[in-house]
Amino acid sequence: MSKRYSIAIDGPAGAGKSTIARQLAAELNFRYVDTGAIYRTVAYFLDLLGISPKDTDGVSRYIDELTIGITYDEDGLQHMIMNGMDVTGDIRTQEIGQKASLVSAQPVVREVLLDMQREVAREHNVVMDGRDIGTVVLPNADVKIFLTASAEVRADRRCKELAAKGQKPSFEKVLAEIRQRDYQDTHRAIAPLKMARDSVKLDTSEMNVQEVLAEMKRIIGEKVTL
Ligand code: DC
Q1: Is 36 near ligand 1, meaning CB less than 6 Å away?
Q2: Architecture of domain 6-35+93-217 in CATH?
Q3: Domain ranges of the chain
């Protein structure tokens, strides 16, 4: 089998990981894997069953009832399939993001999803984004990038995204949610969000998407010849 390449992109909520990772994957002709969407699918499934993401017994009892599928449409958009149902749009809410953050601290959930993520990287060249890709999921990734931005900039971007969808979010509320998510994601016992030692940090607070992409391609070019 020829070598598979993997590019790991980690960072806090709202740092622009998915927008950037998706475009990067399209340009490199790699498979894009948004691992946050997988955690969101678990959270959504448990939510429908009325199980709290903090209920360790409930989560372990029902996780086996969930089959997660990942498909891609012609635009390279990742679709999440929950027990045969496409839930791609349903998982994109602040509430499910928050619940995903809580459920991702459950060891059983991380264990199940770990194999699934590694499997994709075994079979495809990937750009994978998440919180623990460079540290845990793909510790031997060819390139590791830690994308970050100040909490205020991330909240501002999130507000603009929500406004574009016709919602009227309060900046203070969105900022508080981002700060809470940062806290949860960096303080959980297993695979917390942290920068891998061999990761390159990129603070995007003052950069636009095109600048971030260009810088990432420069970083990748320094590490591997594709
Ligand atoms: O990137 P996102 O906002 O869609 O992720 C939702 C939550 O899922 C995030 O707050 C923490 C969890 N997550 C994780 O624990 N590990 C990953 N690799 C990706 C996401």
Answers
A1: yes
A2: 3-Layer(aba) Sandwich (3.40)
A3: 6-35+93-217
Distant-in-sequence, close-in-space partners of 105: CB < 8 Å, separation ≥ 6? 184, 188, 189, 190
Question: How far, in Å, from the CA of 193 to the mean position of ligand 1?
Answer: 9
Provide the residue-wise pLDDT of the chain in tens; the chain has 226 residues. Answer: 688 999 999 999 989 899 999 999 999 999 999 999 999 999 999 999 999 999 999 999 999 999 999 999 988 889 999 999 999 999 998 899 999 999 999 999 999 999 999 999 999 999 999 999 999 999 999 999 999 999 999 999 999 988 998 988 899 999 999 999 999 999 999 999 999 999 999 999 999 999 999 999 999 999 999 8
Q: Is 53 in the pocket of ligand 1 (CB under 6 A)?
A: no
b/e for 168-184, b at 16 or more Cβ within 10 A? ebeeeebbebbeebbeb
Question: What distance in angstroms lies between residue 170's CA and the mean position of ligand 1's atoms?
Answer: 22
